[in-house]
Specification:
The chain has 202 residues and is of the alpha+beta class. The chain has 4 helices and 10 strands; from the N terminus they run ββααββαββββββα. The N terminus and C terminus are likely disordered.
């Protein structure tokens, strides 16, 4: 049985930005092992992949088919004109949409980006950016995801849309998702889900 995400739902991470309407029908949250694993990483408070650590991204909230990602702008994100580089905006959009899509993966599935389009609507120089993403439609193999990039004043900085493909079996070979897991001494080490002993090869 499918459940529709409430259009009035506003997770804590969207405070100050307002809720983003969601029209996608999704399955019950308990079906997604990947969703639970992403939530584990949020609880730990550490980057969920090396590239996220490089950019300074943090996942603020995830639900089935939805994800909020935050970036605090620093000088390393700027272009020669002093505004946030378009490549940074595209990267955070792709990451947020990929996380949203990943929350709906089945056991033994991973994902790949097929296409991505982004429209840059307003320059931004400083502050925090919130990327609010949602799965618009997911089929058995492909799905379409969209996101808005907002600044601290709720201004729309960019809007993006992307098509993702679910991969399984031989197609998913050598695509183990690297996540940081806490070691006994308290340090964080990159480790694939397979190495951690999980059931999902992503």
């Amino acid at each position: 049985m499918e459940a529709r995400v409430s259009e009035s739902y506003a997770p804590v991470s969207r405070k100050g930005f307002g809720p983003l309407p969601v029209s996608v029908a999704v399955k019950d949250e308990k079906m997604s092992s990947m969703l639970n694993r992403i939530r584990e990483m949020i609880d730990i408070g550490k980057p969920f992949m090396p590239f996220a650590a490089l950019l300074g991204l943090s996942v603020k909230w995830v639900g089935v088919g939805q994800a909020d990602i935050e970036l605090e702008i620093n000088e390393h994100h700027l272009n020669t004109m002093g505004t946030v580089h378009g490549g940074v905006l595209c990267s955070i959009a792709d990451t947020a949409m990929g996380v949203a899509f990943a929350t709906m993966l089945e056991e033994n599935e991973t994902l790949a980006t097929q296409s991505l389009r982004i429209d840059y609507l307003k320059p931004v120089w400083k502050g925090k950016l919130l990327v609010v993403s949602k799965v618009v439609k997911k089929g058995k193999i492909t799905g379409f995801v969209e996101c808005d990039i907002l600044d601290e004043n709720k201004q729309l900085i960019a809007r993006a849309g992307s098509t993702y493909m679910s991969l399984a079996g031989n197609q998913a070979k050598n695509r183990a998702l690297l996540m940081s897991w806490q070691q006994p001494d308290g340090t964080m080490e990159p480790m694939s889900i397979a190495e951690k002993g999980g059931d999902v090869q992503l």
